[in-house]
Each structure stands twice: as structure tokens, then as C-alpha cells.
Amino acid sequence: MKISIIGPAYPHRGGIAHHVYCIQQQLTARNHVVQVISFRKLYPSIFFPGTTELDSSRLKFEAGALPILTPLNPATWLRAVKSIKLFGPDVVVFQWWQPFFGPLVGTSARWLRRAGLRCVIECHNVFPHERTPLDRVLVKFALSPADYLITHSISDREELAALFPGKPVSVSPLPSLDEFSNAGTGSREGRTILFFGKVRKYKGLDSLLAAMPKVLSKIDCELLVVGEFYDSIDKYQQLVRKLGIENSVRFDNRYVPNEEVPAIFARADVLVLPYISATQSAVARIALSNRLPIIASRTGGLSECVIEDVNGMLFPPGDSSALADKIVEYFLTNRGPEFAKNIPTSSDTGISTIIETIEALARHE
């Protein structure tokens, strides 16, 4: 079968680009012919808080994408649709994560539907974590023309069911790339805490830092904060100094190259996800693929992948005291090795379900 994918791909960086590579590789391995339509540019510079959109990693996740789209230029949308119609796919799979792309996705999907093509939209988030008054209108415009929706958390499925009653929606765990898994994972017997990924307000790093004085009063441990700060790093550095925890917290403010990811997860003894809100988390899936236990806030899809006292622990979002208690309990009772053994070694964390759904839709089932 022939399948078109629309979404960011290498040389763009980040989790959605990694995911596009993952499904392109899996579909190709199953003897499908895959076309990937990507972006020339994702965001206007004024809207992009990071250092660069482009991936300079030595380990390149190359999906053979055609860089056609720019989100504010309808002429590029038309060019992409013409390329897809010429390719003649059995199904078109859009990646969705941000209402900023609503006009592009909604318009392109309508053009493709008029040409008789089936459209699937895979939702990494339905709504953004930091909402605006326009979000609902843009989400409804973008997702309405889809024949089918795929999402990665029950909470997002519930949002979609409320927005589009009767539209078919499936839920599949977000997969993790095999390239991010380290066969020689650590023992998890040490006392190194990891916070990983881009830093934004909704990820609750301030709650984790606020928990650290209580943690350090009972145990000796280290917190590694590894990822590019999209929020101001100064306020976090000031908070660290105010709390007097400079000797136990280390910031590594950068986008981590792909080839370095496994070693970082091997070094840690627990991943902490103190998110204030969440739908799903690629970082959580990377941790589980490395058999790294997780302490996470009980919100959205995090409470679906973290099973209390099996592969991790949960606490109320924004409750620094409760988070501190969980970290102390985790280390004092040496839960790391026990939880790590409970995490399956299988690398298939949901990709088969996504691929089989796409195949079924391509067959018009």
C-alpha cells in the first residue's frame, strides 16, 4: 500500500520528528511505499523560544522527507496537496500537536478529502498545555475533516469524544525509538534524579526544585536537569540559590543530541516528571524503554503509563511536599532495582497498534 505522512521530519528536531521517523521506518519494513511531507520552516522566529529548529545530532533520523510546507503560506499547502495527489496514497496521516497549525491541517485535509483521499490525524496533544481563547476554534477546524483520529492517552480520547461525537478514535501508547534504549541499563541503586526534556512552565520544574530541600534533609542525592530551557533559566537558577541547593542541582541547558540520550538515562536512578498538566510523555516512554523507574504527577497520560508501586510512584500535581516524600521513600526503601525488574524489556510500546490502525484505514476497513 501507499501511505503519505504529513509532519515535521529530519532535519527538524524533537519528539514529533522522531515519531514520524519511527512510523516511516515501521511502515517501510512492512513493504509499504511511504511518502513524507515535511516543513521548510515550522515557526516564525518570533514564536520559537529555542535556539534552532534543526537537528545537528550525529545520529540522524532520516525519513526521506520532502521539505515543502510553511505554516503561514497557503501556496505551500497547495504544493504539498498536489504532491500527495500525484503520489496517490491509500491513506494520508497528519501529525497534530499545536493549534498554530490548525489552518494548514484543516485546509489541507479538506482539499485531500475532496480528491477522494482518506485522512487520519494522529493527535499528540488535542489542546496545548498553555491555552489561548482561539484554541478551541482552531482544533475543531483542523480535526473535523478527519476520517479517523489516533491519540496516545485516554484523557485525550475523552476530549476528542466531547468535541466530535461519533467520530472514530483509537488510543495507543506513544512508542519510543529503539535507538534511545540502552541495552546495558544501570542498576538503579544510586541516588541520581533526572529531569529531562525542554523546560516549560507546565512541566513543573519549580515544584521539583521546591521539593529538594526536604529531600536533601533526609538523604544525599543529586538532581540532573537536562534539556533546553524554553522558559527563562534565570528564575530557576535564582530559586536554586534561594533554596540553598546549589551543590545538589546541575543544569545542562541544551538540546541533547540523539546519540547522547541512552547514556543519560543509563546514568539516572529515577526519572521525575512533575508536570502540572500532561496528555502523554515521550520522555516517560524513553525511561520505560530503558527500564528506568518514574516518579510522576497524577495527571493525564502520565498516570496511565506509571503504575503505582510497580514501575514508579505518583503524587498530586504541584504538591512539592508530597513529591519530596515520594523521592525520599523511593531511595530509603531502595525501590529502584525492584521497579526496574517490573518494566518489560519489549521495545514495542505501542507502534504495532498505530501501524495496524493505519494499515486497516488504508484498506478502507
Structural class from helices and strands?
Answer: alpha/beta
Largest sheet: 7 strands, parallel
Number of domains: 2
Q: First CA to last CA: what distance?
A: 14 Å
Low-confidence stretches: none
CATH level-4 homologous superfamily of the largest domain: Glycogen Phosphorylase B
> Helicity, in percent?
25-40%
Give the integer mean of the pLDDT values. 94
H-E string: EHEEHEHEHEHEEHEHEHEHEHEHHH
CATH class of the largest domain: Alpha Beta
What's the tally of helices? Answer: 13
The assigned CATH architecture of the largest domain is 3-Layer(aba) Sandwich
Number of strands: 13
How much β-strand is present in the residues? 15-25%
| CATH T-level topology of the largest domain | Rossmann fold
Shape summary: globular
Strand order, main sheet: write it out.
Answer: 3-2-1-4-5-6-7
Radius of gyration (CA) equals 21 Å
Outline:
The protein is α/β, with parallel strands linked by helices. The protein contains 13 helices and 13 strands.
List the helices and strands and how they pair.
Layout: E1 2-6, H1 15-29, E2 33-39, E3 66-69, H2 74-87, E4 91-96, H3 102-114, E5 119-123, H4 135-143, E6 148-151, H5 154-163, E7 169-171, E8 192-196, H6 205-216, E9 222-226, H7 233-243, E10 249-252, H8 261-267, E11 270-273, H9 282-289, E12 294-297, H10 302-305, E13 312-315, H11 320-332, H12 335-341, H13 351-362
Parallel strand pairs: 1-2, 1-4, 2-3, 4-5, 5-6, 6-7, 8-9, 8-11, 9-10, 11-12, 12-13
Helix pairs in contact: 2-3, 3-4, 6-7, 6-11
Which structural traits does this protein have?
365 residues, Rossmann fold, 13 strands, 16% strand
